[in-house]
Amino acid sequence: MFQLPPVYERSHTDFLDDENRYVLSQLLPIRELSFLEGLLARKIGMMPQWTITGERILCTLLEICQNHVVSVVSPEDWYRKSIVGKRKAFNREGPLWKVTVGAVNGDANIYTHLYRKQFAKARIPPKKHLGSFLVSEDALPTIGTNLDVRHFIVGQYVTASGKSIDWGFQGGMHRWGMRGQPTLKTTKSHRRIGSIGSVGDARVWPGKRMPGHMGYEWVTVSGLEVVRMNIDKQVIYVKGSVPGDIGNMLLLKDCLQPEKKLKVGPMPTWLPSISEAERDSETDEEATMNKLGANEIISHKLFNFTTPTLTFSDEDAKKAIGRDKTKAKIAKVKK
User: Fold this and answer.
1) For labelling, which of 66, 122, 172, 326 has a CA lying 20 to 30 Å from the CA of 235?
2) CA 233 to CA 231: how far, in whole Å?
3) Homologous superfamily of 18-165+216-298 in CATH?
4) What DSSP assignment string belongs to 88-141?
5) Can you supply one Gene Ontology CC term for this chain's record (predicted)?
């Protein structure tokens, strides 16, 4: 008999049965003050896509790597135990819960007992990466829930946050785009920044652009459109670029811009039905590799290369049969 792993409820330690655990998600209206949890994604590269009008757009591929809900902290506990909670638990959006999501299963033997303890409560393996999100009460997930790439919808806008590329120590021309010194009549100072202050001030003012460490800063990019997703490989395509190098982890969440905020979506997240969960568990790895690319969701704006580019009607076929192909086409002279 197929049995799904039990998980805890969000408020106490009672287990949920399989019937209540995996239910078919419905697209429900999302309130203006509702905040959903996000996902942890790994940047795996960039590749172009083409729209139906022939426009070439550059997209970033993000892989959703074994995301599970690790813990759900109430605003009261978060306010009492954390300095960050004192600023974010009760803000202008109202009381918000702290939902921690883990990604990429790790080896339990290399972690301490205290670190493994929080994952043992949720009945999930230890995770290599953790990320926290602010979630409203109406969108709270269950602890131990497996988060799928279908948590997002093709066509919606998301926000990506992560560390930018670490360039190390760089000069003023690379770091700030300075012009440098003249090419001619200059000795060993072509890439120097020049003067850093006046004699009258006799000091270097704070904020002066000078050589130093470049990159590895927390950057957030908002308004990225989801144009395609591969369900088999758990890969999502977003239009544009995101911070970080290939292999870095990012935090993905719904865009909060008023004109780009999601109005209807899965609440609190997408969950498969019992039949889908059983079918996925019985599918072996070889069968999954054979159907690569078959289970994809593509935006209506993108051109699908599996569709025909030219179509012929019955009238075109009749005209082709009726014409004598042995004779050359002769233009008719107008009288």
Assistant:
1) 122
2) 6
3) Translation factors (2.40.30.10)
4) HTEETTEE-EEEEEEEEE--GGGS-HHHHHHHHHTT---EEEEEEEEE-GGGPP
5) mitochondrial large ribosomal subunit
> Which is nearest to 242 in space by CA: 62, 39, 28?
62
User: In sequence order, which residues have a C-beta less than 8 Å from that of residue 323 and are 6 or more positions away?
Assistant: none
Q: Which two tokens stand for residue 42?
A: 């790994």
What is the tens place of the pLDDT at every residue in 113-164? 999 999 999 999 999 999 999 999 989 999 999 999 999 999 999 999 999 9
Cα gap 50→56, rounded to integer Å? 5
Quote the tokens at residue 121.
Answer: 């409560």
The strand pair at 218-230 and 157-163 is best described as antiparallel
Token pair belonging to 47? 């590749």
At residue 306, the pLDDT reads 83
Q: Are 100 and 139 in contact (CB under 8 A)?
A: no
- How many other β-carbons are positioned within 10 Å of the β-carbon of residue 128? 16
> E strands, the chain, where?
27-29, 39-50, 56-64, 67-73, 90-91, 94-95, 97-105, 127-135, 146-147, 157-163, 166-170, 212-215, 218-230, 235-239, 249-254, 264-266, 296-298
320 Cα distance to chain centroid: 50
C-alpha to C-alpha distances, 120 to 7, 104, 131, nearest whole angstrom: 10, 16, 18
Q: What gap in Å lies between CA 312 and CA 285, rounded to an integer? A: 40
Q: Where are the domains of the chain?
A: 18-165+216-298, 167-213
User: In this predicted structure, what is the pLDDT of residue 94?
Assistant: 84
User: Sign of dihedral through CA atoms 293, 294, 296, 298?
Assistant: positive
Q: Which helix (H) or strand (E) holds 315?
A: helix 314-322
